[in-house]
């Protein structure tokens, strides 16, 4: 906040990153040089053997407890076994580690709290080695168990691996973190960082040509009103009623769906006859498995096929299938030459067609370092105090990344780095920040949804190659009372080009959309309808992952509600229209004032008035042109700002 006003502009930052040590077109892999290095103490509890178990009624539940200063972490419980295996990794932030040693204790849950220790291992911090990539993982070792006084108990050993490392370690994403110490049980999965991949999406085109030998019920002299209904999952589409009011109707109409691999639901087609009074009769149906549908990669029409329509009637209360088949002539193809839009068309992160055979060569690598956030607003109450549990989600192409959740912090530090392959420079990287409301089991805050804190978009076409951009981006959300700044996020971005020739061709020769979009274009309305189908599929698939990428998160990143009517958008568009017409109204008022001649400063007698009008027009014309130009630039800037805020709806 500057001078009592909220600052919405970008701010350049200077984080302590190692981006200077690796650069150039030869670097095409991530080395964690876009984030600040964070030191962690890693403890891997592998297994125990030959434990001196003290069973109570023949039952014992041994577990391992790690105590470092004020931090305490435990493994799962096991039933009575002298040889146990956990293979669990714990990560403690080194800056918060207190004391000079750590205690790893094997305890028995069934024994009394004061006397449930089976044995312990004490490790001094000065004896712990440092292991950094690209070093191989540290080998585990067996440690003898000791009693409270440090005397060997005679039996029992614990296999451990203890080392100091960074967030670049391979075990970091799946480790238990001390930052999430208040989270336990299955909710720990929600705090971990993960990478998700969108399923491959296809356009399913159903070209319904004609039907033959339909058998409508009732009066044969009645002209049937026939249409075709197609069902795929929860999507239902219908053709128009055929203009041919006979038993051989024709349509030649396309119905399009979005389907995802692996294919699940079949395509169900039924020919129905409108009987009036909201009554219809099914004249036949057919079921088509998508795995049997041909793929069309080139802009060549597929050959039509005839499909039998099955009709089942009730006879004496039993379902009976008729032996006579009506037929339906159709072209059904999976169009792999299109790019299936799942994002708003102005913020697309990938233009490649579905079929891999049609992909162009990779032009470079995009790297993103999610460093930290600052001044986040409180999002919920916990134990009577305000708090925020923030995590980030970034999307580019089919790859989604989710950072770990930093619990109870208004200034979280993630320092995680991710990499994407780039095939087109005219693409957009989207990063969103959310508050995690699923960290305490059955206690779900905020109605079961993770609220959004803000969103940032970065266009690759604005990035120079091999240059690191470190900026602090404002997180803005549009509230009913206006625009609100929810905090700032610090990012580091670098675009590395693998071939400047391919980059030059992408800017000059290669078309933006695949060839199929130009030969058989889809209307804006059609694309918007298909994008809604794609968004629903991605929400369903990604929410079934473990941990899930929740529906509200996917919809927010993809702008799932951008097609909905909004009062704010309607008012903004009305103001744009008035601003566009204002320059013409101002020009008309100015000419009207000249016509009425309210201020004839240059008027003269004996015909001098006409000369005065001419001089006035000539002297004021530059001022008129300047005023029109300023109004036009003002309207253009106002419209650009409104376009940038459309994602805040």
Automatic annotation (TrEMBL):
Q: Which domain of life is it from?
A: Eukaryota
> Known Pfam families for this protein?
C2
Q: Which organism was this protein described from?
A: Durio zibethinus
Q: Where is the C2 domain?
A: 22-143, 183-307, 347-473
Q: What is this protein called?
A: FT-interacting protein 1-like isoform X3
SUPFAM superfamilies cross-referenced by the UniProt entry: C2 domain (Calcium/lipid-binding domain, CaLB) (SSF49562)
Q: Chief location of this protein? A: membrane
Please tell me whether the keyword Calcium is annotated for this protein.
yes
Per the similarity annotation, which family is this? Belongs to the MCTP family.
PROSITE patterns tied to this protein = C2
């Amino acid at each position: 906040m500057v001078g009592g006003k909220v600052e919405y502009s970008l701010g350049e930052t200077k984080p302590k990153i190692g981006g200077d040590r690796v650069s150039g077109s030869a670097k095409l892999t991530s080395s964690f040089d876009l984030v600040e290095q964070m030191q962690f103490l890693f403890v891997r509890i592998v297994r125990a053997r030959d434990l001196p178990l003290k069973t109570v009624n023949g039952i014992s539940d041994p577990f391992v407890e790690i105590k470092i200063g004020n931090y305490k972490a435990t493994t799962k419980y096991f039933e009575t076994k002298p040889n146990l295996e956990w293979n669990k990794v714990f990560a403690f932030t080194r800056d918060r580690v207190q004391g000079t040693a750590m205690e790893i204790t094997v305890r028995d849950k069934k024994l009394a709290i004061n006397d449930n220790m089976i044995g312990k291992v004490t490790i001094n911090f000065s004896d712990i080695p440092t292991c950094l990539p690209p070093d191989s993982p540290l080998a585990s070792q067996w440690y003898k168990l000791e009693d409270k006084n440090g005397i060997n108990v005679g039996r029992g050993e614990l296999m451990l691996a203890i080392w100091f490392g960074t967030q670049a370690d391979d075990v970091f994403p799946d480790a238990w973190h001390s930052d999430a110490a208040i989270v336990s049980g299955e909710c720990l999965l929600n705090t971990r960082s993960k990478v998700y991949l969108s399923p491959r999406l296809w356009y399913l085109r159903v070209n319904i040509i004609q039907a033959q030998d339909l058998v409508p019920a009732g009066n044969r002299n009645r002209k049937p009103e026939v249409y075709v209904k197609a069902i795929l999952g929860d999507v239902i589409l219908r053709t128009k009623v055929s203009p041919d009011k006979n038993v051989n109707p024709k349509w030649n109409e396309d119905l399009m769906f979005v389907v995802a691999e692996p294919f699940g639901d079949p395509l169900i087609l039924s020919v129905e006859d409108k009987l009036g009074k909201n009554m219809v009769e099914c004249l036949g149906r057919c079921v088509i498995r998508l795995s049997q549908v041909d793929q069309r990669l080139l802009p060549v029409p597929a050959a039509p096929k005839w499909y039998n329509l099955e009709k089942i009637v009730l006879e004496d209360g039993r379902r009976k299938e008729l032996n006579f088949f009506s037929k339906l002539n159709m072209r059904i193809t999976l169009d792999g030459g299109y790019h299936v839009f799942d994002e708003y068309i102005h913020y697309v992160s990938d233009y490649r067609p579905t079929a891999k055979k049609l992909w162009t060569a990779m032009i470079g690598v995009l790297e993103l370092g999610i460093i930290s956030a600052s001044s986040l607003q409180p999002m919920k109450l916990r134990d009577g105090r305000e708090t925020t549990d923030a995590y980030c989600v970034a999307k580019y192409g089919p790859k989604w990344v989710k950072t770990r959740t930093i619990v109870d912090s208004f200034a979280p530090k993630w320092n995680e780095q991710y990499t994407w392959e780039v095939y087109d420079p005219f693409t957009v990287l989207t990063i969103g920040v959310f508050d995690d409301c699923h960290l305490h089991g059955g206690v779900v805050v905020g109605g079961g949804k993770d609220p959004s804190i803000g969103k940032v978009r970065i266009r690759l076409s604005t990035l120079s190659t091999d240059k690191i951009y470190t900026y602090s981006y404002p997180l803005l959300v549009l509230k009913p009372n206006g625009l609100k700044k929810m905090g700032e996020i610090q990012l580091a971005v670098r675009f590395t080009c693998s071939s400047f020739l391919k980059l030059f061709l992408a800017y000059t020769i290669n078309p933006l959309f695949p060839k199929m979009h130009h030969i058989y274009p889809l209307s804006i309305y059609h694309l918007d309808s298909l994008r809604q189908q794609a968004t629903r599929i991605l929400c369903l698939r990604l929410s079934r992952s473990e941990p899930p990428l929740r529906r509200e998160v996917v919809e927010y990143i993809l702008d799932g509600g951008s097609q909905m009517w909004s009062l704010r958008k309607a008012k903004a568009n009305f103001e744009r229209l008035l601003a566009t017409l204002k320059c013409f109204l101002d020009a008309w008022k100015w000419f009207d004032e000249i016509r009425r001649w309210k201020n004839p400063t240059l008027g003269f007698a004996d015909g001098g008035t006409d000369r005065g009008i001419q001089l006035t027009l000539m002297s004021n014309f530059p001022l008129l042109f300047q005023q029109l130009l300023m109004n036009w630039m003002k309207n253009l800037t106002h419209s650009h700002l409104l376009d940038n805020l459309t994602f805040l709806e």
